Amino acid sequence: MSEPLIRMDNVSKFYGRIQALENVSFTVREREIVGLLGDNGAGKSTLIKVLSGAVPLTSGSIYVRGKKVEMKSTTDAIAAGIETIYQDSALVTQLSIARNLFLGREPIKGPPFLNRMDTEMMNQVARDLLRQVGISKNIPPETPIGSLSGGERQAVAIARAMHFDSDLIILDEPTNNLGVAETQGVLRFVRGARDSGHSCIFIAHNIHHVFQVVDRIVVMRRGKVVADDIDPKKTTVEAVERVITGMTDEELAHALGPNTH
Amino acid sequence: MLRRLIARPEFGPFILLALELFVFWAINPEFLSPLNIGNTLAFTVELGLIALAMTLLMTSGEFDLSVGSVFGFTPVLMWTFVNGGMVPMEIGFLIAIVVAALIGLVNGWFVTKLKIPSFLVTLGMLLVVRGTALFITNGFPQRTWNAGGHWLAEVLVGDFYVGPFRIYMSLFWFIAAVIILGYVLNRTRVGNWIQASGGNPGAARARGVNVDRTKVALFILCSTLAGFAGIISSVRTSAANPNSGMGYELEVIAMVVIGGTALTGGRGTIIGTVLGIFILRVMRNGIVLIGVPGLAYNIFIGAIILGMMALHSWLERRHHAGT
Fold first, then answer.
1. Residue of B188, B204, B262 lying closest to A92 (CB–CB)
2. What was the ipTM of the complex prediction?
């Protein structure tokens, strides 16, 4: 079998004496959307931070297409083709949508020494991308990010990852704060990303959103991966919830109270 | 259309400047006489050069308190070399400008590499540079009148008449700086990096923008233009005084923020700064002409700063709430 896009091998992470990840092994294959689920404190965020270069791992290794990589910073991760979209997307609120989309990779028009940004091209690409993400309102690309809603900012960040062809797009709660139409737009866009050759890690509290879009579900509990090959087509939301909480049917019934039976 | 115009940060300063011009002219029509306009412009553009560079630096989220000292020190250094017969004027000029640039480099290095706030770094540099200027001159001004007629002096600050108006060459340096720095800030990739460095340095770094290098370059620009302005001023006034430029740093920062550039970084406007420069200089000139004691100047400046800050903050909140 060919090498997976991402392979994390026995990764552990300590914050002081607290172990946030314990010998985690985790893979993402090419053109695959993996749903990463777990309760608060299960280790999802730490796993994502390690993979996106935001925090260093304590031990273990990360491979991209079989090649070992060192993630010392978010810039390393981006260079390795891994783009992370956090809840508070890494955008500059004072800059326009188009300027944010192209930040650090602005196209140049005219002689290079004039360093002139091709704003017409940037605005045109921004307009097309916003339409693709499914933002229902007609927002001009010159609008500053500061005047967008939280959902619209997510959409801009997703559009940016898509446009710059990241191999792996990590979406941390991308559907939080989104309206129904925008959520469907984002889910559609995530599927579109896979169809055009990207892989995604999708983290969401709303398991129904995860079920709508992912190919495989990985569940974490207390810093460990407890299930890594759940097929959403062959299981139910309730069964996955049991894996997340680590409860048996009886325990779950008890936790939910006597009136549930 | 009108609403968009009003929402622009430059709108408030524009109205204020127009109001100032009208009030001073109405009280004393001499205010708009060619002689007064020529005199006001001569010094305004020297301070203005520093304010333009400071606009870019403040947009990147930093500021420089040492510009007033560099304004005083650079010409002192140049004329010490030239008057001592050590180097010709051109070389003296080059040495002084390179030293000014190095001062900016040191400021930038302390701020970006040692992560010390620019307030503290440039406050320290203010004292070091001013102290050096006083030390090497024993506190006495350097004469510069032997510059008269030299081609470099003519290029820097030669004067000529356009009708009744006396125009100094420095006005053209100022106009060139407005055009170039306005272009850099608004139209170029570097301008995008400057704004991102001030708005959200973490996000800018994550996108591969070299935030530190951008800021160091702007510190160098700021010091260099402060030194350049100091040399222009020394040739025009025929003296390089080690004490000149004292307090300019705050006046320059006031010009920039009155124009609508955010003190916290991320948003800057060159047009706004040009308006801010004229608002303060016209005020200084106008209150003297209409008979208000010059000592009351700071009351007006303070009131303008407070009023403009209130206006900018109101516009900002309205902008965020309204869309």
1. B204
2. 0.85
